[in-house]
Specification:
It comes from Apibacter muscae. By secondary structure, the chain is α/β, with parallel strands linked by helices. It contains eleven helices and eight strands. It binds phosphoenolpyruvate (PEP) and manganese (II) ion. The site of phosphoenolpyruvate has 8 residues, from helix 5.
Amino acid sequence: MSIRDINQDWINQFDKPLIIAGPCSAESEKQVMEIAERLDKDYVQVYRAGIWKPRTKPGSFEGVGAIGLNWLRRVKEEFGMLTATEIANASHAKLALEFDIDYLWIGARSTVNPFAMQEIAESLRDTDKVVLVKNPVNPDLDLWIGGLERLAAQGIKKLGVIHRGFSSNNKSKYRNNPQWQIALELKDRFPNIPIICDPSHIGGTRELISEIAQQAFNLEYNGLMIETHCNPDEAWSDAKQQITPERLKEILVDLTIRKKND
Ligand code: PEP
Ligand code: MN
């Protein structure tokens, strides 16, 4: 299989844009369940929580680890949501598959590493789970596409990308500069690949989320991933960019998300 064979069937099954929401990091079973309970299931189809967190600097919270898989399982059982988590190596991939996590995403710090991508791709061989590839931290479109090629070559069909912006030394209002033209080039070259925007990591502050999300919809992205926390200011990672489930709903309503045929 090649990336030309990827199709949008898996995302077209939703009658609204795909919304993935939940905390940057799972912190406790109580926190995970409270956020899930407060999310409006009419708007959010997939619950995200990072349990393995590749952090830029040592000493930061690196995730609760495999125990969090049980909490995501409870979210699925009790709220009927699909679940998503980040995987960064073969053992994460194996455990996530064992626990029937529906969406696996590859973080910006892994997409940048061809050996990591290859190892992950091989450990997901022929999976029918959805696999989403975040752009690499650096503005290198070929690395991003290379990651997709490695996954497609292993027979993984339900693929998509997440645009989360790029590191830059230039000061700007963004935490990660969106450099929309890079994502749009990918979209132009591969219109068959679903593209999701991550306004939380692009913006880095909660005030920017709605304008970035609107921009993504203006550019006809297929969905959004937005970090959502029951107590954003106290979050153990990415506190400044997280919003409450109630604020998320307001933003989504303002984006006037409609059914495709409306
Ligand atoms: C995340 O989604 O919490 C995350 C760590 O993202 P990124 O890989 O985009 O930095
Ligand atoms: Mn985060």
